[in-house]
């Protein structure tokens, strides 16, 4: 690891001039806010200079006490409270300095302006941000009580959502991730690839990685016929806790003194921050680990400034993509830049600050955090777009800061960087053929009453927490299914039904990247291949022979699991192929994945996977996303683990549950559990 004392040592002269430059910048900031007449008035530039100094002194004297006392308020207001407190301190300063008043919107806008100016000055005069980070971490280390810090080695898992092994290697070779490159070059770490399950998306992967169990998680969203055709969504505020309860045995990766930060599931940790399965529990949302996030009065203001800057970068990116006619391209919309910034900046900054606080405190044995930005950006810009590599460059700086904290802490740590899945590029199914999967099914089932959810499954990123579409849909879906409940019960599908259902039967079509799910919800259990062919003779051949479909999976009464393509059928039970192998372009483990998924409780009547073009390395997502994941085909199924060289993870890492076992084995060696 780097010798940080030597790398980031700066003279007192350096810190003096850094302070002067920022002081002048803050003074100018006060004058700019005054110019716009939003509630701050300052009579002279000398007054601005004085009040900037007084605010700095008040922050140094009062912020440590205020942040400790008002920490719950700042956390439960998701940081807005810290802006209010900053505004209150500026108001207090105005009472000590003649010629300055502040009120109204200025109480919020002024702290933001100060943070924006600080960020701008850092960029213009190349004030070393990492040197400032180093100094802050070093000073905090000195305050820690060594007697309360454990002397065993801690383990930190840092997940990059959606980054394939191939893209990682490219980013390292391009120089976008110098911190990770140094770890590899120094010989402290090595890269090991692994293969996801069929469902190459976060809920299936994190369930396996954190809990060692992802059974029955067939996709990002699915229908539970046995539960009144309930639509289960991985990031539903009501659904995520249910899913975790199903997969957990209480012995997850973080069950013994672990901490979960910005994850979908908790890994059975008691110490959680921004863990989706626990978001409904307000009591667990507040956690003293937030202390380091708000330990500096400018932290949250700086985060908000960076969020706004990242949003502007996306507006610029949209314009560039349009001008250069970059393809494939999707419409991102007016509000997407703020969703991107929430994932790429807000959660990233909070996650790193909380993690550094954990490291310095030295009490957590195993920490697992997720960084969401790359996945969100790659979905909308493309997996090799400049936007995506920009996200990795900024993220690498955070790995450097985590390494810095681990090097300075009074406890040793093992650092692991890994991903839960990758992504595969390609124009969407609708862009290629003019119709969505829903449209295709509708054409094959004339007169069907179809509900479809083809919205992008980027809820890996907490978007659902703010928009809550799941709750709205649940109400709609219950109304639609209520009228057919009695009808459904009339059908016993243990044998092929004798008659065709009424004309207004229900069909639900869902998308999870390039994986589609077709549920025939008039029936209380999964229909067999023979039953589907009798009831809806156009459905299976119409799907299987479409040029955008790679294969479909159905379950046969006579043959068991069948994978059907345009020119051939794969009989999974006896591993035989009739005609052309429909899995020829996919992973050698594809048959194994499909056979396992066929036995899941919530597998749809017809599981649909788009084609994969190995020459172009493209799939066709059923959602409107450029980079996608969720099914089989290409890099989406091949994430990575960058781990200490002494860790022996094995050579055959297929499936998230297998990776969980390897992680647990290495942790057990450290703690001799």
Number of helices: 25
- Radius of gyration, in angstroms, nearest whole number: 27 Å
The residue fraction in helices comes out at: 40-55%
Q: Main sheet: which strands, in order across? A: 12-13-14-19-15-16-17-18
Q: Which runs of at least 5 residues are low in confidence (pLDDT < 50)? A: 464-505
Output the structural class. Answer: alpha+beta
The total beta strand count reads 23
Q: How far is it from the N-terminal to the C-terminal residue, by CA?
A: 28 Å
The outline comes out as globular
Brief descriptors of the model:
673 residues; alpha+beta; 23 strands
Summary, kept brief:
The chain is an alpha+beta fold and 673 residues long. The longest helix is centred in the middle third of the chain and has 26 residues, at 299-324.
Task: Write up this protein.
- With 673 residues, this protein is of the alpha+beta class.
- Among the domains are: 4-130, no CATH class; 429-628, no CATH class.
- Helices cover 46% and strands 15% of the residues.
- The protein is built from 25 helices and 23 strands.
- Helix 2 (12-35) crosses helix 6 (106-124), helix 5 crosses helix 6 and helix 7 (129-143) runs parallel beside helix 16 (386-408).
- The model is unreliable at 464-505 (pLDDT under 50).
């Amino acid at each position: 690891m780097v010798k940080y004392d030597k790398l980031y040592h700066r003279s007192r002269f350096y810190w003096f001039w850094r302070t002067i430059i920022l002081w002048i910048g803050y003074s100018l900031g006060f004058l700019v806010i005054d110019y716009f007449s939003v509630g701050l008035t300052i009579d002279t530039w000398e007054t601005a200079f004085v009040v900037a100094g007084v605010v700095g002194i008040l922050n140094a004297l009062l912020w440590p006490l205020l942040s400790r006392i008002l920490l719950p308020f700042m956390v439960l207001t998701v940081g807005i409270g810290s802006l209010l407190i900053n505004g209150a301190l500026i108001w207090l300063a105005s009472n000590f300095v003649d010629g300055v008043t502040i009120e109204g919107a200025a109480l919020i806008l002024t702290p933001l302006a100060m943070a924006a100016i600080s960020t701008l000055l850092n960029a213009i005069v190349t004030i070393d941000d990492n040197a400032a980070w180093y100094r802050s971490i070093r000073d905090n280390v000195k305050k820690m009580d060594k007697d309360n810090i454990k002397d065993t080695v801690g383990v930190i898992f840092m997940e990059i959502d959606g980054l394939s092994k191939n893209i990682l290697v490219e980013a390292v070779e391009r120089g976008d991730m110098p911190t990770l490159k140094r770890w590899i070059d120094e010989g402290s770490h090595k890269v090991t690839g692994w293969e996801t399950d069929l469902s190459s998306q976060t809920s299936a992967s994190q369930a396996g990685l954190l809990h060692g169990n992802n059974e029955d998680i067939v996709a990002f969203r699915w229908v539970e016929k046995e539960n009144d055709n309930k639509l289960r969504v991985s990031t539903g505020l009501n659904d995520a806790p249910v899913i975790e309860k199903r997969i957990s045995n209480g012995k997850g990766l973080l069950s013994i003194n672990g901490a979960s930060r910005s994850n979908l599931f908790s890994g059975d940790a008691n110490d959680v921050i921004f863990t989706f399965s626990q978001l409904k529990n307000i009591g667990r949302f507040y956690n003293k680990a937030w202390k380091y996030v708000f330990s500096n009065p400018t932290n949250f203001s700086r985060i908000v400034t960076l969020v706004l800057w990242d949003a502007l970068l996306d507006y610029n990116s949209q314009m560039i993509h349009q001008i250069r006619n970059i393809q494939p391209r999707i419409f991102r919309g007016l509000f997407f830049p703020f969703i991107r910034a929430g994932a790429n900046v807000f959660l990233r900054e909070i996650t790193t600050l909380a993690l550094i606080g954990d490291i310095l405190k030295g009490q957590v044995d195993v920490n697992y955090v997720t960084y969401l930005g790359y996945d969100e950006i790659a979905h909308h810009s493309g997996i090799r777009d400049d936007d995506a590599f920009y996200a990795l460059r900024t993220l690498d700086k955070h790995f450097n800061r985590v390494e810095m904290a681990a090097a300075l802490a009074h406890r040793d740590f093992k650092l692991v960087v890994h991903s839960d899945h990758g992504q595969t590029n390609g124009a969407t199914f609708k862009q290629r053929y003019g119709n969505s999967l829903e449209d295709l099914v509708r054409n094959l089932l004339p007169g069907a009453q179809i509900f479809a959810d083809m919205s992008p499954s980027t809820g890996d990123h907490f978007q659902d927490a703010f928009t809550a579409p799941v709750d709205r849909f649940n109400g709609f879906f219950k109304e639609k299914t209520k009228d057919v409940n009695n009808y459904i019960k009339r059908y016993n599908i243990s044998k092929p039904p004798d008659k065709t259902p009424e004309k207004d039967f229900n069909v639900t079509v869902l998308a999870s990247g390039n994986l589609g799910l077709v549920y025939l919800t008039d029936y209380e259990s999964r229909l067999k291949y023979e039953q589907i062919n009798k009831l809806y003779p156009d459905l299976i051949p119409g799907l299987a022979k479409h040029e955008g479909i790679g294969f479909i999976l159905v379950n046969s009464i006579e043959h068991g699991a069948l994978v059907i393509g345009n020119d051939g059928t794969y009989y999974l039970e006896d591993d035989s192929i009739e005609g052309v192998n429909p899995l020829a372009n996919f992973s050698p483990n594809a048959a194994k994945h499909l056979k396992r998924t066929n036995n899941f409780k919530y597998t749809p009547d017809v599981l649909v996977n788009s084609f994969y073009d190995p020459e172009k390395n493209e799939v066709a997502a059923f959602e409107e996303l450029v980079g996608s994941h969720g099914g089989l085909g290409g890099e989406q199924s091949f994430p990575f683990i960058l781990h200490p060289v002494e860790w022996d993870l094995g050579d055959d890492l297929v499936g998230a549950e297998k990776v969980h076992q390897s992680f647990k084995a290495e942790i057990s060696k450290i703690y001799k559990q």
